[in-house]
Design brief:
Elements lengths: L9 E5 L5 H8 L2 H7 L7 H10 L4 H4 L2 E7 L4 E12 L4 E8 L8 H16 L4 E7 L3 H8 L4 E12 L2 E11 L2
Parallel strand pairs: 4-5
Antiparallel strand pairs: 1-2, 2-3, 3-4, 5-7, 6-7
């Protein structure tokens, strides 16, 4: 049987209790709040509850969070999510967070390729989409180089400090 969630560089796996420290670090990074719509820090307790209550079943949870693990040493380098899953329309939003020390090393690209393949071939989803701030060229290139297409601009979509920023709406549709 085909392994949808691993290749020679990374594997994607469900959250485990030992991921609490890393989840706390990612979720409470104010640099990521702009794109995540978080407004307050998460407590360790809330994250522990989230990990424990997650069924790691996109149909039950309406979202799927997977840990991105580097195969060379089993080190978690980030997370990748499908959120806002709508089974009726077989679509969901994508989000990726890579720890700063692991950025620009291909982990996000590999994780995105794996998750798209899993979503389209195994889960039979019709489309994935992402909102990318217009000034985030790294994320924009990541999605565009993985077959996503820019299909619109959402004006003044996210607040960043005292200004509002536009975001690109990107889609990848299973054909």
């Amino acid at each position: 049987m085909k392994s949808y969630l691993s290749n020679e560089y990374v594997k994607l796996r469900a959250m485990e209790p030992e991921d609490l420290h890393l989840m706390y670090k990612i979720e409470n990074n104010p640099d990521l709040w702009e794109v995540s719509s978080f407004t307050v820090p998460y407590s360790r307790y809330a994250l522990k509850e989230y990990i424990e209550q997650s069924q790691s079943d996109i149909f039950a949870d309406k979202q799927l969070r997977l840990m991105i693990v580097r195969c060379a040493d089993n080190r978690v380098v980030g997370t990748i999510d499908i959120t806002d899953f709508v089974p009726l329309h077989a679509r969901g939003a994508l989000g990726i967070a890579i720890l700063e020390e692991f950025r620009h090393k291909g982990y996000a690209r590999n994780a995105l390729e794996l998750l798209c393949e899993y979503a389209f071939e195994f889960l039979r989803m019709k489309q994935l989409y992402a909102h990318v701030p217009v000034d985030n060229t790294s994320s924009l290139n990541l999605f565009l180089n993985n077959g996503f297409q820019q299909c619109g601009v959402l004006k003044e979509w996210i607040q960043s400090g005292n200004v509002y920023k536009d975001v690109f709406l990107l889609q990848k549709i299973r054909t």
